[in-house]
Structure formats: C-alpha cells, structure tokens
Amino acid sequence: MDTRPHIAPAPDPEVSAQPKRRHFSPEEKIRILEEADQCSKPGQISALLRREGIYSALLANWRKIRDAEGMDGLRPRKPGRKPIPEANREVERLQLENLRLQERLRKAEFIIEVQKKVAELLGDGLVSPTNGPL
Questions:
Q1: Cα 57 to Cα 108: distance, rounded to the nearest angstrom
Q2: pLDDT computed for residue 133 by the predictor
Q3: 58 φ/ψ angles, rounded to the nearest 5 degrees
Q4: What's the pLDDT score for residue 129?
Q5: In a domain, 133, yes or no
Q6: What gap in Å lies between CA 10 and CA 102, rounded to an integer?
Q7: CB-based contact 111:99 (threshold 8 Å)
Q8: Residue-wise pLDDT tens for the chain (134 aa)?
Q9: For residue 23, which of 45, 53, 67, 49 has the smallest C-alpha distance?
Q10: Does 96 fall in a domain?
C-alpha cells in the first residue's frame, strides 16, 4: 500500500483564470439600444450582438427596463434587496399580529366549546348565586 501523499499538479493559469464579468455604462447601453432600434434588415441585430459580444436576452432585458423605467433604469444599481419602506414594515407587523390573535381566538373558542360539552356530559353541578344549586 502506497502511503506517500498525492501531490496534485499546479493548475494551468490560462485555464483556471476566471472570466471577468462585463459591465456596460449607461451610455453604452443607450448607444447599443439606439443602434438595435435602427436595425431594419434581417441579420442586422445579430451582427450588432456579435460585434458587441452580448446575448439577445441582455438586449431584451435592457429594452424592458428602458420601457418600464426610462433611461434612468439603465443606471447601475446596488446589489441586494431593496429596503422595505417603514409603512410596509408596519403593515406586515400588524398583519402577523392579526394572524396570531385570530389563532388565539380560534383556540379559545375551541376550549370553550369543549368545556360546554364536558359540562353537559357531567351534569352541571354548579351553584348559582341567586337560585342555589342548579
């Protein structure tokens, strides 16, 4: 049995290099969108996409953002979730509290119903303050 440690060969730097993600400035996005909008013959958009090195899905996404938010939507955004406005947080808190209280009410009503049935089965031996024993 071979007990010598196995040493892995050093990775090839050309192969292991991570590709860099391209970032387009808002001006580049606008320029590419304007060029794409001017394309009228078949194959012109494909040539534009190859020349710029982008996929058609990215172009479609930029168009959707531009149509929904205007040119300001093409500006870079901070990564992560958008902060929830204070009013929305309060509404969510109240909704959760409402659900919690509804569940407590449901349980309390169930307990009362069970107590009524038990009292009926056992015969109510309670003493009323005005009438004496029932």
A1: 55
A2: 53
A3: -65, -40
A4: 54
A5: no
A6: 63
A7: no
A8: 566 666 766 666 665 566 677 888 888 999 999 999 998 888 999 999 999 989 999 999 999 988 888 877 788 777 888 777 888 888 999 999 999 999 999 999 999 999 999 988 888 655 555 555 55
A9: 53
A10: yes
Residues 67 and 26 both lie in one domain = yes
* 51 within domain boundaries: yes
User: Does one domain contain both 39 and 66?
Assistant: yes
User: Is 111 part of a structural domain of the chain?
Assistant: yes
Do you know the residue count of the chain?
A: 134
- Amino acid at residue number 32: I
- Check: CB of residue 33 under 8 Å from CB of residue 66: yes
Residue with tokens 């909704």: 95
Judge if 38 and 61 occupy the same domain: yes
Q: What's the structural domain count of the chain?
A: 2
90 shares a domain with 53: no
4: DSSP letter:
S
Quote the radius of gyration of the chain (alpha carbons, Å).
35
Nearest CA to 35 among 57, 53, 59? 59
* Nearest alpha-carbon partner for 33 in 65, 4, 68, 76: 65
Residue 110 belongs to domain spanning: 86-123
